[in-house]
Specification:
By secondary structure, this protein is α/β, with parallel strands linked by helices. The protein has helices at about 50-60, 85-90, 105-110, 120-125, 140-155, 160-175, 175-190, 205-210, 215-225, 230-240, 260-270, 290-305; strands spanning about 15, 25, 30, 40-50, 65-70, 95, 120, 195, 210-215, 250, 275. The chain has two domains: about 15-175, Rossmann fold; about 180-305, Rossmann fold (3-Layer(aba) Sandwich), CATH 3.40.50. A five-stranded mixed beta sheet has the order 1-5-4-6-7, with helices on both faces.
Amino acid sequence: MSRLRPATTSILIGSLALGSCSISGPGGATAAPKGSCPTAAIPIVVSVDQWGDIVDDLTGDCGDVSTIFKSSSADPHDYEPTPADAAKFTDAKLVVVNGLGYDSWADRVVATLGTKPAMVNAGRVVGLTTGVNPHIWYGPEFVYKVADAVTAELEQLQPSDATYFEGRRAAWRSAMRAYDAEIAKITAASKAKTFGATEDLFDYMAGRLGLTNETPAGYERSTANESDPAPGDVNEFEHALATHEITVLIYNTQTEGAIPDEIRGAAEAAGVPVVNVTETVPAHYSTFESWQVSQLSNLATALGADR
């Protein structure tokens, strides 16, 4: 089963900049204003855009952040860095990667460097190993642990700006209040609620929200291995939707193929709400938090948490 649905968005290479003032995006979340850096900006490379916005917010004007992979039309697993990408790594003082086999190409580039930059590997930070679900930006606890690790590394690299970086972290946490509030609201309404998913993308968040996973195990194993589920697993999934064993279907809109579309059709025919999620950050969201809050708000509506 193909990983990502072709889209009009293209890979963008370059620095991620939020500007010098607060920015509101869909979902109501607001990026914290950057302020001015007391000293020079640290050159930083982030492998994928799910972490790029967070790192940019945490560094403010004390970071010159380049996010390498920013695309909803390709698979970050298979990305091949360009010579221009490699040049950015050469100049970087800090590299932030997802890890867990998700962006191994970034590790390979770093391995070729004569002078190694400091690194934050998100998977290692949260204590996971390759072979598990790599979509850890969907785990709220993981997001905050990685942010703390980035701030700690920034303070090691530029101790004279430690107070500035602490202020950036505090401002970012304040900007994440809408995210926290949506999670709390859904958690309060999730008792006895279940979900099925066309991929394991949202599983960390769903677990944090208290939703029970009713995706058939065989289907889940197949999609995690990027293979087609057996007909029996698809039938089991469709039966669970038809009998309302599944309260809500989580549908990755970047997944391509007849089987996910068939599952979505079965949910719609059964009257099971479908909540769309994406693996990467769509271009129309200005911040990580606005992207996440928008999806969580849609889930809250589907679960009746707004009533």
